[in-house]
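Good morning,

Attaching, inline, the backbone tokens for the sequence recovery test we're adding to the shared suite. The designed sequence is right after.
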């Protein structure tokens, strides 16, 4: 069986690797000339946070998302299992109570507990929640590591190819085109997300920190060399234009509220992209002739791709075994 994966975002890369590991011959087609140029995955925070996400997501996100905490460290050595810290300013303490009521898998922290985990936040927050089992990664480095692993496994990459599934010479096609797949998946919609990257040596964090706020919840994901990803807006729109001044102001003010050192940081990057989502905000695998469409990863591309990729591989292997089984039956009849 020869399989063509269309799209080298996180869904396509994780699926291709899972298929290659199970002995299936795969080719990857990506319309951009270079990794990430047109992928929503390039804008992601890289949080692997199933328990925190439960605050606004279905239980399935926790069940499927837990698989990512096992999958990523095995495929990307830079995965950091440091947990997630959730905080709220004293005036928004009610937000922390609300968040705790909707989630599980956390320990409650007092001011000393917060300071012990993140010394640079000492004295700034009276209480917090610590989700110890969660992890994070740098999406761009993780994707590059997957490409390396795929190339080492002999998987051909075809960059700069706008693939048309009707013309591909393959037994099965895995459509991982993200929001572009709306031409075949009418229910798919876009949810705009804006982020920025700051750089400063004035503050160090060891793990993603979520700052709750009734209007502007924010998270800060530490990356290497003093870089911090600050995210993210959630706007019901498929507008991919650049970050608005209003969103930038809101994200920057929230970062400043977490720690004033962010006020002196350099702005390294502002980026907007659009998350592909189905109406229930859960991902899906849609069978359509010889094509399987993997989509609707919404806020959870890095979190849920490993579980979906496993399901795709199971389905392909099961469909490959069927003709053989029939053949055997006929032989014995
Ligand atoms: C600001 C922000 C923060 C986020 N943070 C997180 C997070 O912390 N954790 C998490 O798990 N998720 C996060 N997400 C969500 C995550 O980024 C998405 O769920 C994920 O990127 C969707 O991946 P995808 O592979 O389906 O789509 P994409 O990443 O968009 O990939 C699709 C690829 O298909 C290619 N393509 C399209 N058409 C063709 C064609 N015809 N031929 C060849 N190639 C084609 C595109 O060029 C692209 O490379 C975040 C998203 C945003 C916007």
């Amino acid at each position: 069986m020869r399989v063509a994966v269309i799209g080298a975002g996180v869904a396509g890369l994780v699926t291709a690797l899972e298929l290659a590991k199970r002995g299936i011959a795969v080719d990857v087609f990506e319309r951009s000339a270079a990794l990430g140029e047109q992928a929503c995955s390039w804008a992601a925070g890289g949080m692997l946070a199933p328990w925190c996400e439960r605050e606004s997501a279905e239980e399935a996100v926790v069940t499927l998302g837990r698989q990512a905490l096992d999958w990523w460290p095995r495929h990307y050595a830079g995965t950091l299992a440091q947990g997630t810290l959730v905080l709220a300013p004293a005036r928004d303490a009610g937000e922390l109570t609300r968040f705790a009521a909707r989630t599980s898998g956390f320990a409650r922290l007092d001011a000393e507990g917060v300071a012990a985990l993140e010394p640079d936040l000492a004295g700034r927050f009276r209480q917090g929640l610590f989700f110890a089992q969660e992890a994070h990664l740098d999406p761009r480095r993780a994707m590059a590591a997957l490409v390396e692993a795929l190339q080492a496994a002999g998987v051909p990459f075809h960059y700069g190819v706008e693939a048309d599934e009707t013309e591909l010479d393959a037994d099965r096609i895995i459509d991982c085109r993200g929001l572009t797949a709306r031409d075949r998946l009418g229910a798919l919609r876009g949810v705009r997300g804006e982020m920025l990257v700051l750089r400063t040596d004035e503050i160090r964090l060891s793990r993603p920190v979520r700052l709750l706020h009734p209007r502007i919840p924010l998270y800060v994901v530490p990356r290497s060399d003093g870089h911090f990803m600050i995210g993210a807006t959630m706007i019901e729109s498929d507008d991919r234009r650049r970050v608005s001044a209003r969103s930038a102001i809101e994200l920057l003010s929230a970062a400043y509220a977490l720690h004033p050192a962010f006020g002196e940081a350099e702005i390294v990057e502002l980026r907007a992209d659009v998350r592909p989502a189905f109406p229930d905000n859960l991902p899906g695998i849609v069978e359509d002739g010889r094509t399987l469409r993997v989509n609707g990863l919404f806020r959870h591309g890095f979190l849920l791709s490993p579980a979906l990729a496993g399901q795709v591989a199971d389905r392909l292997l099961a469909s490959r075994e069927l003709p053989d089984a029939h053949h055997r039956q006929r032989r014995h009849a």
